[in-house]
Amino acid sequence: MTETGSAPEPHAHPVSRLRTLWLMLVTIVAPVLILDQASKFYVASHLRLYQEIPIVPHLLGLAYTLNSGAAFSLFANLPAEFRIGFLFTITGIAIVVLTILLAQAHEPSWQTVGFALILAGALGNLIDRILRGRVIDFIHVHYYDWNYPIFNLADSAITIGVAILLIEGLGRSDRPRVG
């Protein structure tokens, strides 16, 4: 009890917050980032640009492409100087914000898992932009002539992270958020 007679507010010790951040970095961000970069390296070293290898005929294949835009080639038609600066700025802001959100978490939760997946995906695609100027995409989901935009593991991590946050957020009512 405090001097006013009310119960003290629960505050996570800075060490437990740091522990949560490191736990998310080691168990989610690093493995996803390693798998993303390893898969892109494999595709770039084993396939020719635009080559496709069917995995499940008329459904799933590996198709080596380079994406100069954001997800689903968004912004790919903008002038290169603007597009590059814009994508680096947005990605940098996202990485900083996600890292801060993870550092403020009292304990691991579905929310921190979602943040960590989005962070891993953002870092994976940022590494491509830094090293190659474009992002390697290679997962081709299609049904005969219907084609879903080609994507990569980093894109999948971002999508799954956002889905987790949306589902987890829908389940919340008055529970406090991270921080």
Give the SSE layout.
Elements: H1 14-46, E1 52-56, E2 60-67, H2 80-104, H3 110-132, E3 135-143, E4 146-147, H4 153-171
Antiparallel strand pairs: 1-2, 2-3, 3-4
Extract low-pLDDT stretches: none
Largest sheet: 4 strands, antiparallel
Determine the mean pLDDT: 88
End-to-end Cα distance, whole Å, is 22 Å
Number of strands: 4
Number of domains: 1
What is the molecular shape?
globular
Protein structure class: alpha+beta
Strand arrangement in the largest pleated sheet: 1-2-3-4
Element-level helix/strand string: HEEHHEEH
Structure write-up:
The structure is a single chain. Helices cover 56% and strands 13% of the residues. It is an alpha+beta fold. The chain has a four-stranded antiparallel sheet with strand order 1-2-3-4. The chain is globular, with a radius of gyration of 20 Å.
